[in-house]
Amino acid sequence: MKYLFFSLFISLNLSAGEVKDFSLPKYKDDKTFKLSEHLGKKTIVLNFWATWCTSCIQELPELHALKAKYPSALFIGINSGEKKKLIKKFLKRHKFDFEHLVDPKMKVADLYGITAIPVTIVIDKNKKIVFNGARPPKNL
After folding, report:
1. Angle at CA 60, nearest 5°, toward 56 and 66?
2. Does domain 2-133 have CATH number 3.40.30.10?
3. CA angle, 106 as apex, 100 and 107 as ends, to 5°?
């Protein structure tokens, strides 16, 4: 029920298939991740999350199962609006084995019209958004 609640508040400003490029620093080393460098090479799963989000924690087993089922896909966690200190503490307590990006000013969340989290977006090899939802998809 919580996921349904969150999904009702997701702004769906994206038309189906509209991918917007972005660059963000990686959590681990501050090197820049640029989405356009990965588009078309493999399926990309973007998961927007925050440390205070209980629904984000609840969906972790689903995300891990999806990643195990599709190991060739690129799984990216985008922390929305928080500092590295909080992210570090969260990642020590919760297994979340993705490449994580830091979006402290929520610029990418705004770019994609996201107003509530968690949100998972799947971009296929044809550079189209094929999924945008409050729960991870069962299949890619």
Report:
1. 125
2. yes
3. 100
Whole-number Cα distances in Å, 58 to 52, 66, 100, 118, 130: 12, 14, 18, 10, 23
Q: pTM of the prediction?
A: 0.86
Buried b (16+ CB within 10 A) or exposed e, 7-35: beebeeebeeeebeebebbebeeeeebeb
Spell out the domain ranges in the chain. Answer: 2-133
Sign of CA dihedral 94, 96, 20, 85: positive
Task: Say if residue 14's pLDDT is above 60.
Answer: no
Beta bridge partners of 119: 48
- CB 101, CB 78: distance < 8 Å: yes
Q: How many CB atoms lie within 10 A of CB 51?
A: 19
User: What would the pLDDT profile of 33-86 be if each residue is shown by its tens digit?
Assistant: 999 999 999 999 999 999 999 999 999 999 999 999 999 999 999 999 999 999
Q: Residue 30: its pLDDT value, please?
A: 86
